[in-house]
Amino acid sequence: MIQRKEYLDNLKALRDKQVIKVITGVRRCGKSTLFELYINYLKQTGVDDSRIISVNLEDLDNAELLDYKALYNYVKSRLVPDKNNYIFIDEVQKCNGFEKAVDSLFIKKNCDVYITGSNAYLLSGELATLLSGRYIQIDMLPFSFKEYYEATKPGGKSKREIFDSYLRYGSFPYVAYLENDEKIISQYIEGIYNTILLKDVATREKINDVSVLESILKTVASSIGSPISTKKISDTLISNGRKISPNTVETYLRALTDSYILYNATRYDIKGRQFLKTLGKYYFVDSGIRNHIISQSARDTGHLLENVVYLELIRRHTRVNIGKLAEKEVDFVATDMNEVHYYQVSASVLDEKTLERELAPLQEIKDNYPKTLLTLDDIGNGANYEGIRQVNIIDWLLL
User: Fold this and answer.
1) How far apart are CA 41 and CA 50, in angstroms?
2) 119, 24 in Cβ contact below 8 A?
3) What are the residues whose beta carbons fall under 8 Å from the beta carbon of 367, sequence distance 6 or more?
4) Which end of the chain has a smaller Cβ tally under 10 Å, C or N?
């Protein structure tokens, strides 16, 4: 198994800390596997099996535990007194009233509680209330390219070939092991996609016409890398014969982001140093899902690269926004505390006019924070344009 080092290190740092650890993320991104990896780590550090209590609520064998009292009593009966116990509850949102069981276990002495869930409606907006603020949320993504490369490298392909597969088929962990079998990968991604749409979005929002959701997603998929508003999406659907209001579009988009299939990147005015509420961008959690939604001919390498870079930046930085600079735009502004980093993304800048266009926004920024131009161009150790570094995107992803 790929070690998912970033998330594993996070859990190690939080071990025995007096907070509930909540792992959230899109379906099939590897949350259950992370539990396995962490449990193996605990055993390696000397924790006996009897002190590790693991429950997967997707397993029919645990159907009787979908009531919070039953779940609480089951775990309580297995606690080892006077020693630290490690409690893992997978897909916790399936248990009705789960927060009562989790809170009660948490306040017991010597209980270190870890939970996962796919549905952000239960595990984000309401989480602070449900768990009395006693939690830390770890948002998990599918494979980074570095993890995907590690999983597929034994195949003997070049970095560029592996990256092309990553862009085409996406980053769900299991996809990396399907050896580019397009038919099987397509069926697997379609299964994830349909489950998210039907279970995580349509059921929760009581949407009977799922085709409306798909129409919204297709519109967003065709607009990656471009600012988009709920009114624009509404107008597009109306022009295609579907009557839908901007308010309804906003509700559906919120449900799609809650389910982690979409991420919303808001705009940041670099000169005014303020966040803007309009004309943000949406990115997909996985390029394979995005490619599944739109036709083969509509796939655009530049926009897919931007999607991949956005996901990598939210792995590496606290906040990631779209940069507004008068009439120009910086693809991404990534911030950590008082540190800022600016990024432009382009498939290639070998054409002189394209290079000038991509550098122009970065050249207008007068502060001394790092500025990077990411491309697929083969440029050896990179290039430097008056402090703006050009870096190969594949090399950057593998850092």
Assistant:
1) 15
2) no
3) 340
4) C
For residues 174 and 187, what is the distance between their CA atoms, to the nearest angstrom?
12
From the number of C-beta atoms within 10 Å of its C-beta (0-12, 13-18, 19+), residue 8 rates as: middle
Q: In the prediction, which pLDDT does 197 show? A: 92
Do residues 29 and 58 touch, judged by C-beta distance below 8 A?
Answer: no
Global pTM reads 0.93
CA dist., res. 123 & res. 114, Å (int): 13
Res. 124: pLDDT tops 60: no
Q: For residue 78, which amino acid is it? A: R
Contact 151, 173 (CB under 8 A): yes
* DSSP structure class, residue 317: -
- β-bridge pairing 319-325 and 85-90: unpaired
Structure tokens at 253: 């988009």
End-to-end CA distance of the chain: 20
Cβ atoms < 10 Å from Cβ of 309: 23
- Residue 275: what pLDDT? 87
For residue 67, list its beta bridge partners. 96
Q: Contact at 8 Å (CB) between 21 and 138?
A: yes
The H or E element spanning position 31 is helix 31-44
The reported pLDDT for the residue numbered 323 is 95
pLDDT at 326: 85
Q: Which residue has the tokens 């122009």?
A: 360
153-173, pLDDT tens digit by residue? 777 889 999 999 999 999 999
pLDDT at residue number 277: 80
Q: Which residue has the tokens 């009660």?
A: 104
Give the chain's length: 399
* Degrees to nearest 5, angle at CA 193 with 5 and 177: 45
Residues 6+ positions from 320 with CB-CB distance below 8 Å: 265, 310, 313, 314, 332, 333, 334, 335
Q: Which residues are paired to 342 by β-bridges?
A: 333, 371
Residue-range domains of the chain with CATH: 5-140 (3.40.50.300), 300-399 (3.40.1350)
Nearest to 281 by CA among 346, 329, 245: 329
CB contact at 8 A, 394 and 160? yes
> CA-to-CA distance for 6 and 399, rounded, in angstroms?
13
Report the candidate in 221, 384, 214, 245 with the shortest Cα–Cα distance to residue 306: 221
